[in-house]
Amino acid sequence: MLTISLSLAIVALSSLVLLYPLYVGLIRKKNRVSEALGNIDAQLQQRLDLLPNILKLAKRFMDHESTLFEEITNLRTAVSQPYNKNHPTSVQAHLTTAQALTEKMGNLVVSVENYPALKSDQTMVQAMQTYNEVEGRLSASRRFYNSAVTELNNAVQIFPSSVVAKWLRIEQMPFFEADPSAKKAIDADQFLS
Amino acid sequence: MPLPQSKPTHSKDISNAVRLIFQNYIEPLQAEDLTEAFKEDTSFKAHYRKHIFPFIQDLEERRIQALRTVRKRSFASLGLLILYLLITINFLPMPETSKEWELRTFFFAIACLLLGTWALFPARKHRSSIKAEIFPKIFEFFGPEFKYQEASPFEIESLEASNILPPFNHEETEDYIVGRYDGVKLEIVESDLSKRYRNGERRIFRGLFIQLEMNKNFSGQTLFGAGVSKPKGYDEVKLEESPFTNTFTVYSTDQMEARYLLTQTLMERVMELASLFPDKKLKGSFYNNRLLLMIPTKDNLFEPSSILYPNTFLEDTQKIQQEMGVIFQIIDTLKLSEKTRL
Question: Is residue B257 within 8 angstroms of chain A, CB to CB?
């Protein structure tokens, strides 16, 4: 009886010793993803704070782009909505909306090129420089997030940490991917015709 | 930046030295060396033709004069040494103890050293005059704010905060270049770091330090290098696979900022810079408001080629232009001159 109890105790202790590092590793990876997501949100917030000024300046010169301004304003509202950072679907929706806003801002930047007066306005130049800086930091946050998600997803999928992940209900997280249109080859005819 | 040693091998050096001594032969400047300066019309060649080419002939005459003086002094020194030996053998008693032999040998060695220094002095003086007269003109091509000086006011100890310096207790610096590109202050210095012990000295590093001062302050510290060890408080930054990440390891106190700084373009520029130097064991550190690059080199840089050969400095200036170009691209890529409200 004593031998059986002792054996069971040893098995339990050994399991704990083997499983504990996996548990700690998973929690660390999950927290790293949260940290990276927090970084993205911080940069998104900075971008959102810049947008009203940029739109105000652009509206003064760009009379015919009201549709674009409306889309940007709606996306800005959507991105600033709270979301569940631990739920992959919620995170995916948030990142997709953020990426859509990036695409629309890209369209705005291209449109600014058609308005020389706006393009050379000093306040606009400074605003765009700051905006580009934020986009650079957002890009860096995205790379950090994707690196953290890679590590987490690897741990969630690969045995034996996948067992611990299932037990802790830690799921794979989505990557922050570039918009598919950004991956298409550029057709010069579009710009030259 | 390594001056091209398009260069003569040791055997050719010896052969030219022997021909100088025994045949009074000095390799002359060839006409085709001079016409090279007029073959293309670039801004760089225009600068060379205006500011450096006019001095080539005068420097060539001074080189030949210096070599002739070295030859005369060498023969004179040899004569004096022979005279010294004759006097000591014929008029001084033969040394009897080993201590007396040591003393006699010591004085002979001192005599050789002093006479050798005197004989070679014109060559060293010529070398220094090239550094003082031609090198500043080479760097002026990059802008009026670019200055070169042989003696360096730079203290390597001031770079301790970068966390990429190896431990050392002795430094020698020379060949200091300072300038501004697009508003960014740039300093380059050649340095030799060593550790001195009671019984001797061991070289720790020899090469270039390149420091860029920016308009942005970094919130953290990021460093990269081949074989660099992780400092306390840093985490490894796992970047996307590329030639850069296959060559260098990156550590940082701020994961996001590391990725903000080390974009694909910057990593390519750094690899381009590393490829210009044979070892590719470059190290870099972003700290405070600076980027410091530490590039080991085997050769003593910024040295004119041997006095035994004529030199138009065209190849030297072209090589420096190429290497400075890569540094300017790094500044452009990092947009170091931009002040933002972040």
Answer: yes
- Mark yes or no for CB contact A39/B256 under 8 Å: yes
Handedness of CA B3, B7, B10, B15 (dihedral sign): negative
CA quadruple A65, A67, A68, A70: dihedral sign = positive
Q: How far apart are CA B246 and CA B227, in angstroms?
A: 12
The number of residues making up chain A comes to 193
Query: Could you report the per-residue pLDDT of A45-71, keeping only the tens digit for each?
Result: 988 888 888 888 888 877 777 888 888
Specify the residue for token string 């660099």: B228
**pLDDT tens digit sequence for B185-209:** 999 999 999 999 888 899 999 998 9
Task: Pick B260's closest partner by Cβ from A126, A130, A140.
Answer: A140
Sorted by sequence, the CB contacts under 8 Å of residue B221 that are 6+ apart come out as B163, B234, B252, B253, B254, B285, B286, B287
Please give the pLDDT value at position B188.
92
Q: Is B197 left (phi over 0), alpha (psi -120 to 50) or beta?
A: beta
Exposure of B63 in the CB half-sphere (CA atoms within 13 A) = 23
Bigger pLDDT: B62 or A189?
A: B62
pLDDT at position B285, please? 95
Give A145's strand partners.
Answer: none
The model's pLDDT over B165-180, given as tens digits with 9 standing for 90+, comes to 999 999 999 889 999 9
Contact predicate B109/B84, CB 8 Å: no
Per-residue pLDDT at A188 exceeds 70: no
Contacts of B167 (CB under 8 A, 6+ apart): B195, B204
pLDDT at B73 over 90: yes
* Rounded CA separation B295/B208 (Å): 5
List, as ranges, residues 135-164 from A with C-beta within 8 Å of B. Answer: 136-137, 139-141, 143-144, 147, 151
The pTM for the full model equals: 0.77
Predicted pLDDT of residue A60: 80
Q: Tell me which residues of chain B, numbers 230 to 249, contact chain A at a CB-CB cutoff of 8 Å.
A: 238-240
* Cβ of residue B341 closer than 8 Å to a chain A Cβ: yes
- Tell me how far apart the alpha carbons of residues B23 and B17 are, in angstroms, rounded to a whole number: 10
Q: How many CB atoms lie within 10 A of CB B294?
A: 26
Closest CA to B261 of B239, B231, B230: B239
**Inter-chain Cβ pairs, chain A and chain B, closer than 8 A:** 41
Which position has the token pair 């010591």?
Answer: B106
ipTM of this predicted structure: 0.76
